[in-house]
């Protein structure tokens, strides 16, 4: 396969269930976590003398830190441990780790010494944190963030909400996070990627999916391998489906053209772009393969095998009438941009989407999601996974909630998170390109789930490839991602070497 297997993601409550089912393992989980973290610490400072500062908190995360300190000392290092809590109030396993540290001659400091360290290890607060960090621990985190050495966070950077990725008051900015058992959503979305640095996953020999099957995975091509095959030599454009794009109101024609160009270059056989502004242009001179038509001509031609409604659609009466017509049709449908805003302001129409027999894909950003769920954007950002699942269920549609760590949610309750992409994608037209990519796959016979998984991941990878080549992130344009996406997709489906005759 062209990528590693898709890693499972668990909410904190699920991690606790896994821990509960494996509570009696030997060595204990805290010993395993500490050993894994100590190994990472040594690897991160290879080539230099490891002088570690370990900051231990008042819970089990602090216990992990004491185990790391003990194991490093037993290997001949002299870690400095900072601990401000009461050891007798530690949870049982953490208190045992504290006593084991003292039993080999270890001691603790109350303040960070004023000297250089090669590595700081954040073991203050783990994935169970629910309240904002304030007072002396907030001051300590500020000190950590100003250290002149890399920071390794244990399980999750202190102050980051493990389920949502929200910063709870303040949070450690780590260069590396060693997370235990499995990935948590907060590592990968919202503020998580800005605080976690590089992430390594240590399952502590639990094989978590054998204990509790995961509802979520990181998106990679391993989720849709059956589709990544070469085309038959005996192919023609009729086999590759047709995409109809409905949008392009006055002043927004470019959005529809971007979607059409993306659909064309991801392999759809025919592309019809139905422009509401029918006086805008007769041909796309940069992409003359696109067939520009009036929207009704696109909808009545019978050539389209999938539709995308929303790029540059506007919210006028003509847009609303076209949206009603497409929703009542029986073709796979991608709804984006103003199509989503119209749904939010017309609940009856949203009900028609929910009852559609054909597949529906939704591609909202947080503000559009807030409108569809009749809430505010802060609530969407506070729990992106919950919001994506709520939208998928409410509208019976495969949904991607776009943003840092885009979430693809299914009406069944399963969901996946994307880790490709970069800040260069915060520019106009990116959503239109994503819509075109997804519509092209639907038109070629992909099912809704895998079409959206592939389109989201591929689009992010295209942006990453461009940044690697020095194109962006600042100034990266939506149109530039189209050719990059085509190149990556064809690489995935490259014929295997069959030898010579």
The major pleated sheet works out as: 11 strands, mixed
Radius of gyration: 26 Å
CATH superfamily of the largest domain: Ribokinase
* Share of residues in strands: 5-15%
SS field, number of helical segments: 18
Count of discrete structural domains: 2
Principal-axis shape: elongated
CATH C-level label of the largest domain: Alpha Beta
- Mean pLDDT rating: 95
The counted number of beta strands is 17
Please bin the fraction of helical residues. Answer: 25-40%
Class computed from helices, strands and strand pairing: alpha/beta
Kindly report the CATH topology of the largest domain: UDP-N-acetylmuramoyl-L-alanine:D-glutamate ligase
**From the coordinates shown, what is the CATH architecture of the largest domain?**
3-Layer(aba) Sandwich
List the strand order in the largest sheet.
Answer: 1-8-17-16-15-14-13-12-9-10-11
What does this structure look like?
The longest helix has 21 residues. This protein is elongated. With 501 residues, the chain is α/β, with parallel strands linked by helices. The model has no long low-confidence stretch (mean pLDDT 95). It has two domains: 207 residues, Rossmann fold, CATH 3.40.50.10260; 272 residues, 3-Layer(aba) Sandwich (UDP-N-acetylmuramoyl-L-alanine:D-glutamate ligase), CATH 3.40.1190.20. The two termini are 25 Å apart. The protein has an eleven-stranded mixed sheet with strand order 1-8-17-16-15-14-13-12-9-10-11, with helices on both faces. The chain has a six-stranded parallel sheet with strand order 3-2-4-5-6-7, covered by helices on one side.
